[in-house]
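User: I'm curious what two different proteins look like when written out as structure tokens. Can you demonstrate?

Assistant: Sure. I'll show them one after the other, since each token string lines up with its own sequence. Here's the first protein:
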Amino acid sequence: MKKSASYLILMACIQTFTSESQAQTLKYPESRRENVVDNYHGTPVADPYRWLENDTSAETGRWVKAQNEVTFNYLNQIPYRTKIKDRITELFNYPRYSAPFRAGEYYLFSKNDGLQNQSVYYRQKGLNGNPEVFLDPNSMSDNGTVSIGIAGLSNDKKYLVYNVSKAGSDWSELRIKEIASGKDLPEVIRFVKFSGAAFKGNGFYYSRYPEPSKGTELSAQNQFHQVWYHTLGTEQKDDKLVYIDKQNALRYHSAEVTEDERFLILSVSEGTDGNELRAMNLAKGETEFRPLVSGFDYSSGVVDNEGDRLLVLTNYKAPNYRLVSIDPLNADPSKWQDIIPEKGDLLKSVVVAGNTLIASYLKDVTTRVYQHERNGKLIREIELPAVGSAGGFGGERKETEVFYSFTSFNYPPTIFKYTIATGKSEPFRTSELKFDPSQFEVKQVFVPSKDGTTKIPMFIVHRKGLKLDGQRPTLLYAYGGFNISLEPSFSPSRIAFLENDAVYVQANLRGGGEYGENWHKAGMFGKKQNVFDDFIACAEWLQSNGYTSKEKLAIQGGSNGGLLVGACMTQRPDLFKVAIPQVGVMDMLRFQKFTVGWGWVDEYGTSDKPEDFQWLIKYSPLHNIREVAYPATMVTTADHDDRVVPAHSFKFIAELQHKHRGNNPVLIRIETQAGHGAGTSLSKAIEGTADIYSFIFYATQSPVKY
């Protein structure tokens, strides 16, 4: 039945009264404050919630339980919360595939039937064979919290190494499966983090840490990342140590082997960006690594080799990257040969496809792809089906066809088969949706930042024909860091937000990798404030251009994006109605002391240095909470997050609840049996997204159609 205007106004008034009055009566759990003060280069800084860093203490456990009770009691009284969850569940219920990859006579791919907690890997003979279940992580736990990933294939395609992670932790185990029989070998390799499996002969190289002390697995600083070699059919205790740096405990080390097994490549990094490369010519019997690209100021990776020369993708003296050929016996940069020179657009990746090279670029945050001969000569541009994001294309030198995926905000992921000789693309697998994504439109705008000259790309997605009256509930999402690019992508759950006459916005801030290393450096170290200024400028633009208002605008970001949200809501609490900081880095003075937080020092700086401390203390979300009114806030974290430990979020919400002077709710949602995000079960992901959308609609007093 059609509702009258007076009825809708009445219901809006009832909803307004309900949400505001309940926010006023919220009683937050007690967060004990203790007298802990650190001295940073002559500046005393209080840390009253230091005790919350102990994630295994009984007191922290009681605090977590009490916080969740308040949060879920609040969420439970949102009238449409269950309906939003049901709708997201319905939207996710369609088959989703990965691109296949060839393993000898077999093709392997992953598929989710719709509502499986984890995608299942299948094996089939040839492209037209019968798919058979090959690896099913859903059978490894009762609640879908075990996830798997492919770590590597043996060169004879007889064996596959896969990693197993539990409850979202970065810790994983490596296991080996015989492809033809589907049987696992008996050995299990433990204490692995951030590693693939690089095969050479009858074994593979992998990276691991020493066994952690019991009870500290999810919080203690990880030190001495090492490279080992495992021989198939033997126990881990018999593995051979290949590389350890006993003078530098806080570095990452990873190994790769070229397709022809000629070279072993060692990558060494002190953080998440910037690395040096070393090479060992195994074919010539070398036993020591030679420097290939030295220092940590640039990022480089080996793509392939041409005999005794290596093809390397690097941003050394090329902020937008170039592909060069390097002789390891004479690796001075003056002797490098350009294969694909640097251009105006970012060269995002180069992969081998048959006997050619596929180069992918970002042009204003959307993909362009070109096929080259191995000497760099251009063969053709690969025509993509629309403006969006493409990935894949890789294969071995003997391949005649490869696969890639394409997606955009209103273009569901589609797998294409690409014939290398002819350049022909044809759909291989399309998404069979139960809704019509073409009902939504996408536009890209370029927003002037605070400096008046820098233009920030921003994608805006909403239902076609939506009345833009300045009152649309709007979700602004961004990341802005670590050289990571936020490209267009499709999300089934996002449809549940958009079909309620809402607007989704994705901003590409400085600090990311969208325009190469110069764009990244403009948001690092002492220039991090640029990132927050960019985000604030995007929020102001959306309000001044008729999309939304400060009473309807929500902001969201995860990890470094959680830091972004935390910094912006503390700098400009007047600008937003809702803030969703997820698994954020909130304590910028102590992040380096936990798990792999030391790896972010080359992005943020460190409070251990006087100069760095001066800029970190100015924006650290935890240390800039004032006694003012803040937006409706729901912090999210998880008990097994050993990337950004939950203490960041715990301390932030405790201080926010202590100083918040407004009526908006300020809550924390702490997921159990989950981590930083990767490997989260689908059921938990749906529940979490439904709670976020419900919280946003409720706080912005926006009508929901369900």
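Here's a second, unrelated protein for contrast:
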Amino acid sequence: MNLPRTPSSSTRLALALIFLLGLGTAACEPGASSGGASGAASDAADLILVGGTVITVDAEVPDGEAVAIRGGRILAVGTDDEIRALAGSGTEVVELAGRTVIPGFIEGHGHFLGHGQALMTLDLFPTTTWDEIVTMVAEAAAAAEPGTWITGRGWHQERWSPAPEVTFDGVPTHHALSEVSPDNPVLLTHASGHASFANALALEAAGITAATPDPAGGTIVRDAEGNPTGFLRQAAQGAARAALVRFEEGMTAEERETRFRRQVELAGEDALRHGITSFHDQGSSFADVEGLRALADAGELPIRLHIAIRGESNAAMDERLGEFRMVGHGDHFLTVRAVKRQIDGALGTHGAWLLDPYTDMPTTSGLPQVTLESLQETAEIALRHGYQLNTHAIGDRGNREAMDIYEAVLAEAGGNGALRWRIEHAQNLHPDEVPRFAALGVIASMQGVHATSDGPWVPQRLGEERSRRRAYVWRSLLDANAVICNGTDVPVERISAIASFHASITREMANGERFYPEQSMGRLEALRSYTLGCAYAVFEEDLLGSIAPGKLADLAVLDRNILTVSEDEVRDTQIEMTLVGGEVRYQR
């Protein structure tokens, strides 16, 4: 699928002149005030960035050396001389000194409040042994009040070297962890978010014993005697998380508000540090959206958020989606017009739903997380209320079942792709599913960094042949004319757009090997997937995703040109500055 292009222009400044004329007309409307400025002064740019390289990601707007901004929007792209001519006495000038300007990165799939919360808990992402985790928990327990929950996120058993001597499904029992935290419940979330590890007190708070049956869609991993090890896969996390929620309900309203604002602040700061100006959140509850709406009304959201509703029942969504639908609320800082469901789990925890059994665990083909009837009902509710449907699907069967439901329900809407429904992750696709994305107008919301992070162990799960033909097939999707929206799935991965861009063009793993590099993206394709592709995925290609006159001035300034430097240099790229609506919100 080709993305829509902006109107063509005969020169670099033609669109700028049209935009200026539009601003002038608005200034002459009844009730508008010129503030006493002369015509020349009122036409001047507020901010110009000159002396560098501007990559527009728009075939109709040529790349340039400089860019001008006025009223929070792009005024013009052109040569240094052309853009300097738009400066007035009050224009701020940023000398790029050879640096590169690109459209602000758009995080196509992440968990905004979850990222903020992860930044407030134990960061287990760097850990490479189980002993490190036990030590971190011991230190946290020594500083915590008795009874307070200790939480963390980011561990992955495939990164442990050496592996613990005694494990069950690759993970040890809780005893060493429980020994260092006897007075505090501990719940540590897997990097994927699709499993957790609980200590003895957390298991007790959750009511999980040897007699507790596995819930639908989940597994309480047990030792040889049938006792819970502490490893809770997929839906089995629910009881422990519910126990944590009960503890948090004891917080005062003021404490909850403080925590909420801190989550937003931390997540926003980290996004801006990485050149991210917009974020597709997958997803948030009605209560969280109410909190975000209040911040948007007060002008306190740090970046633009596009929210998918998640965690609400079909009945509740059918009743309340209408009151929460917002497009461009708070000066385009908050949009809510999507719902999120999850058809399966993650590949790392053997939860992704496969057409054939796992190579390294042939007793299972994964753990479906929702009935097909329930997902179809969600699709019909989304269609009825004019919402996108974003479905988490990782395994090849999960993707096939989701696409079958999409095809059936979208046929009710005429069978076209105008609704731009999405598959989140699309990590393992049977070749038959690849052309269906473009045919149905479905967005492939994928995360480049997942392929290189998961690559070392994917063949263990799928075997060599399935991995080669079905795993993270970006090139196949692009060649089939599908739209890809890139991201990181933060806090599952680090939020670094540069790391995910590098993974997209090289598929280079930490060990230096390349994970089926024939499926790599080209550099401009990868940048487009992180900008205009994600803008298209939320119906905002006319506002975001490229540097063109009239679009919102959301920009990232890089210390080098990621389209021309060596692949190794791409990895070391620094974000020098991030602008949202023409306002500098981060500077290195």
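A detail about the second structure: The CA atoms of residues 64 and 78 lie 5 Å apart.
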